[in-house]
Specification:
With 282 residues, the chain is α/β, with parallel strands linked by helices. The protein has nine helices and 13 strands. Strands 1-7-6-5-4-3-2 form a seven-stranded mixed beta sheet, with helices on both faces. A six-stranded mixed beta sheet has the order 8-9-10-11-12-13, with helices on one face. It is globular.
Length: 282
């Protein structure tokens, strides 16, 4: 395993660029059927870059789908994942006509198994993560972190790129630039985990903000009537490293939506409604 820590370059504030549209593929890489709640997705992005492909999130890995015992009994019982190899990121990359070895970079919101389980399917890729998340996953200092982080997911040896500083400003949020062409940035939003981040991706006329597990349900960032189904609200409280901090991040996301309704499209990892809209080009 190698670990590289990014230096602090002097980058300008990200600006919209006039360039030909790139196809960003929206993939559901781990459908979930949690007890007492509506079905969830595991929303990942496959992004063509100047040098290959970037994945935002990986969903569950092929090894875990083939051997569900690797997921642990608690996750299987409570989240009830659909274990279908064709839904894994590596199989979907192939189905789109790409070679999995074209994936040069994986950008991780956080290292829970339903977000990072597939990194072993792309052993050649650099894996970008914020330093607080990397430290939490490697140390596993709390009982919650022991349960949520599975060292087997990175036991194969990972080319980690650990971003320990915010070198850019993104709409008032500190951010760490990951790639250019298109611009991809990690935007720290701790709360769900200590090092949880959103991922900002530049499109020709707007930004996508993959908010990870900052929220689960689109109603949580509704500007008129914020709401969340009770089972999902309870689950988020139970699995959050800092629930109050997570709620404060929701306020920041709602303020971002108010200020830039056309320029920034915010969505989360698990909301099926948001996934359907974006997968259908809206």
């Amino acid at each position: 395993m190698s670990v590289r820590t990014t230096p602090v370059p002097r980058h300008p504030v990200p600006q919209r660029r006039s360039r030909a549209a790139r196809t960003i593929h929206h993939l559901d890489c781990a459908p979930l059927r949690p007890i007492g709640a509506a079905p969830l997705v595991s929303h990942c992005l496959l992004i063509p870059t100047g040098s290959g492909l970037a994945l935002v999130g990986t969903g569950l890995g092929a090894a875990e789908v083939s051997d569900p015992r690797r997921l642990g009994a608690l996750f299987r019982r409570t989240m009830r994942p659909e274990l279908d190899l064709s839904r894994t990121a590596v199989h979907q990359v192939r189905a789109l006509g790409y070679d999995p070895y074209d994936v040069t970079d994986i950008v991780i919101t956080h290292l829970d198994l339903d977000h990072a389980g597939g990194i072993a399917d792309f052993p050649q890729a650099r894996v970008h993560v914020m330093a607080d998340e990397y430290r939490s996953a490697m140390r596993r200092d709390t009982r919650l972190e022991v349960n949520r982080y599975l060292p087997a997911l990175w036991a194969h040896g990972v080319d980690w790129v650990v971003h320990d500083t915010a070198d850019s400003d993104w709409f008032g949020f500190p951010a760490a630039r990951v790639l250019r062409a298109p611009d991809i940035l990690l935007v720290p939003l701790p709360g769900h985990t200590r090092g949880h981040s959103a991922v900002a991706v530049q499109e020709p006329d707007r930004w996508l903000l993959h908010a990870g597990d900052a929220y689960y349900f689109h109603g949580e960032v509704d500007l008129r009537r914020p709401r969340c189904p009770r089972p999902l609200a309870l689950h988020q409280r139970l699995v959050a490293d800092d629930h109050e901090l997570r709620l404060s991040q929701l306020e920041r996301l709602m303020e971002l939506r108010r200020a830039h309704p056309r320029l920034v499209r915010v969505f989360s990892s698990h909301d099926a409604h948001e996934f359907d809209l974006l997968a259908n080009g809206e």
